[in-house]
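Entry 14. Structure prediction run on the chain below.
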Amino acid sequence: MAGLVHPHTARQHPLLASLRRLHRLLLLTATLLPAAPASALDIVGASTIQPVIEQLQPLIEGATGEPLRVRGGGSAAGAAAVMDGHADIGMVSRALHADEQALLQHELIGHDALAIVANRANPLPGLSKAQLLDIYGGRLSNWQLLAGSDRPIVLVSKEVGRSTLELFEEYSGLRSPGRPPGDAAPRISSRAHIIGANLEALTLVGGLPGAIGYVSVGTARSLAAVGMPVKILTLDGKEPNERNIADGSYPIIRELNLVFRQRTPQVERLLALLRSAEGSAALRRNGFQPVPGRAGSAP
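Output returned:
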């Protein structure tokens, strides 16, 4: 009948009224909330470079206007993540491979050396290249054979995909037992403990008196300085110090690179910070050599 209102529509159900009040409250709250943060700048790759980026993270975030998400995983993983579009920047602690150079842009940020490390209890000051090859090739199994203590040699090596392994293979001519068969190159002994990041290698070497490994010299120095019981051995009488790295007389030196698809404003601001005095200081704190000619680098 006209003019009449059905009793069920004249009164609003209490639950519906509550829901509408909640909806209005949520709309009001949304207008008062701060804007959502910018998407994170994703940086992936070499655990060697990772501490430098993490130490500079507040400055980088201030310069780029974006939060950082920094992860390790190794140089190969960093380059692959950028090529696949899963990361903005890759950390690569070696020279780029040909396929990476074809697909990626890069910037050299410094140089590092590969240090041969032993437990601090080992009395030997250093090794020759020939001795190192005999050790990793499995021909020497006790330190006593090198005028050291009567203690079995415990080998620590790196997993495939780590640039430290590639550098060691290039220097030694030995191939990882994890590589596919098919070439006649001699192999690193199958007795070697295969690990990933530098921290894992140094923890194992520091915990086993007979252990030997190879890691970034910067990481080795940093952890030895805070009490990790490891020592850096000379190689063919050369220490991996600043002078010997700079003049190339230490035999195992590598590049430290950042890779990316495009020089976006955020990427360029990050690179500018790494070229600055603050960036050079962070590289030096971690035992690396900044690129000559940049702010804070050695003349």
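The domain at 41-111+255-290 is CATH 3.40.190.10 (D-Maltodextrin-Binding Protein; domain 2).
Filed with the rest of this week's runs.
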